[in-house]
Structures are given as structure tokens and as C-alpha cells.
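Protocol step 4 of 5: obtain the predicted structure for the target chain.
Materials: sequence only (see below). No template structures provided, no constraints applied. The aim of this step is simply to have a reference model before the mutagenesis design in step 5. Sequence pasted as it appears in the construct record:
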Amino acid sequence: MKSNDKIFLDALKKIYNRVLFPPKDLKNEDVRKICAKLTKEAFSKVNFQIIGSENLPYHNNCIFIYNHLDNHPDYVVADGFQITLDSHFVSSLILDKYYNKPGNRVARYSLPSEKNHKAYYDRLGFIRVYAKDFTPKDLKKESIRTINNQFYDKASKNLENGSGLVFSPEGYSYATEKSPGIFRHGIFKLACRMIPQPLIVPLVMANFDKLASEATYKCQIKTPFRMSDFTILDENDKYFPRIVKRINDQYAIWVKDLMLEDNNFNNEINDLKKKIDQKKDKTNMLVFYGSSSIRLWKNLNENFPKQNVLNLGFGGAFIESLDKYFDALFQFQSPKAIVMYLGGNDLSLNYSANQIVEMIMALILKINKKFPETKIINIGIKPSFEREKDLETIKKINGMMREKSEKISFLNQVDLYKELMSNGKINKKYFLQDGLHLNQEGYIVLNRLLNEEL
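Step 4 output (C-alpha cells):
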């Protein structure tokens, strides 16, 4: 076992021991909170990626479904027992991180021989159900059915009490390459029985069955839905099974796409090339470049009705990304103006403020060399709850860029940072639930600032 796998395994063992042997007076909810904290610490030692956090709903009393993956056989914490990496990741790195509550999970009952499994999950106080191939031989089917039906009442109360519910519809785990399995109907029946119907948040998981040294653990958050979005109001609707299968089939596509997704943005760049090719009128364009803050600006054309707008933003973009694909993304005639939002993602690469400013300026000068008549507007890096520890660095970068823009005639700097602060603190009303991406109110502010510049 490689050293980083050993470090990760030791962190998993720490979770196991702290959950199994906490102070006796702690409630299940408190133990789940400890578990979430330690799980976040464990995953901080390995590579992981969360995609689509902008899709998280504002409230967490939702059903978070995920495709359940195997564990790598080397990650055994005690006597054959393994902590399920994917479900712990969801509870900790999604629910606890973004809602400050790890929620509750549905876990199978333990077999009589699985003493560690029983002790661990009993201490976490999860909702338990019997799963296929994991039921005592002497337990009658009627008893299993009666016990499993209690799940609906317990899960409903959990959601009504404002807690998220983490659930795998398969009832079994698979290798990423064979995921997902066949979705069972129970969780979707629960959603239909509740009034109002809860949101179902699809989480697509990949690589949690691999060693940390050999893969990046991936979780992609897809757009939440209700069963009523498919016109299903009742579990007895004749189309109910068909809709569950459609969701299941869509998951298979999502998992495959996530497996193939690379960190070099090749797919995104190809999509942007098509976007450029499909743009018929390329005269006097107002072109937007940057990361997800640009990509997610859905009503860009409406906000700039008098401009010939082209949105070339792509999620996760680094400054280096635009430089690497410069020829592909700057292939048209001289635009009227270019708007850029860059630098935020580069903070995660441990660059200093000076280094980030140098990279931004190198790109700006490269753009100016190709388009000497084009006005360039650089949007200052916004504050965000996700990057609170970097606020001083962000302010320094923005200040340095402001100073440079005052000396360069073709460059304007927009101070978005100041507009999103209130009494020295980040104003939450401008952000989505993930605390990173702008909501509609945030884009109204950005739109006003840019229109003032234009």
C-alpha cells in the first residue's frame, strides 16, 4: 500500500474508532456530526472533485440520491468492516459542508455475524432497512416487509423535521464501471407520498471504489427534481415504473460521462468552439470569458440587449486554461469589448497574489496584442464563503489589478468585491446555497457594474 493510501486508511480508522467509542451521553445526531468532521479531515488528504455545487437547493430537507459504489478491498478499518466512502462523502462533504447538518442515512440491517457493522451504524442512528442478500435466514418475508414499510414513516418524519435524507436507490454497491445498478422504487414512492413532494437531488459518484493513490474521487450534483416534474403525483400511476427507469437510465449516462470527464477541459473547449462556429454575426461582439461565474450567467443576452453578446465561460477555468486554448477561443475578428472573470479558481493552486496578478496581466497583454482596438474589462475576484480564508489575498489581487488598470488605457477594472460585502462581511443574499456562485441578485449587481463600464 502506498503511503498516501496508508494515511487515508489511518484517517478512516480514526472515524471508526471515534464513532464506535464516543462519550456515552452523546446523541446520535452529535455522533453523526463528529463523523462528518472526521470524514472531511480524511478526504482532505486525497484528491476529490465536487462538480455542480450551484445546483444545490437552498434548503436541505431533500432526498439526496446517489449511485452506491464498492469500497476498495484494502480499505478495511476493523475485522472485515469497511466504511462506505461514497455515502460518508455525501453526508460530510455535501450536506454538512453546505448545510451544517450531515442529515440522516438509510442503511441496511446488519447480519448476526456483522458485529462491527451493527455497532457502527447503530451508534450513528441511521434509518435501517433489510436489503436483499443481507437478511437473516430465519426471518420471514412478512416480517421483513413490515419492518421495511416502517421506513416510510421514519424517513418522512426526518424530512419534515428539516433534515436531509441520503439514500442509494439500488440497495447494493457496484464498481464505477458497472454503476448504477437497478433502482428500486421505495425512495421514489416516499417522494410521491409526501405533500408537498420533496426535492430529489441526484448525486453522481465515480471512483470511490478505487485506491486514493490511483484516482480522483468525483461527485457531480445534478439539477434537483420532484416526481411531479414528470407528472407523477401518485406511486400507483401507471407511468411511475417507467419514470423510475428513465431516471435510472439517465444515471447510467451521467456515471459514464463523469468517468470520462477530464480536468483538461477538452470537452468544454470543444463545446465553446462549436459555439463560436455557430455564431453567425461576429461583428462588434461583447465577448465574456472566465469560469463558472460567467458560464452560469444564463440571461446574459437579456442583460445586454443592445450588445452582440457571446458567452465563452466554462466551469473550473484557470488563467492557464485560457492561455493554453488561446488560439481556439480568440479566433474571430476584433471584438468591441472583452469581459474577463479569472483568478478565483487559481487560489486553489496555492499561487501568491503576485503570481496570479502576473498571470492575469500576461493574458491581458496577449489579448491586447491580438486585438489592439478592443476594450478589456476585468472583473475583480468576488468574495465567497467557500473562499473566506483567501479574502485578504483576493483583496490584494483586486487592489493590484485596480492600480494596473489606472495606468493602462485599454483596461478597466470592475470592483465586484466591494459590492458583495456588507459591514465588512460577505452578504449572503447575493449567493447560491454553495456560498460560491452568484444568484440572481448577485448577477443584477454585476450587470449594473458592467453596464456602467460599457
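Step 4 remarks: The mean pLDDT is 93. The longest strand covers residues 200-206.
Proceed to step 5.
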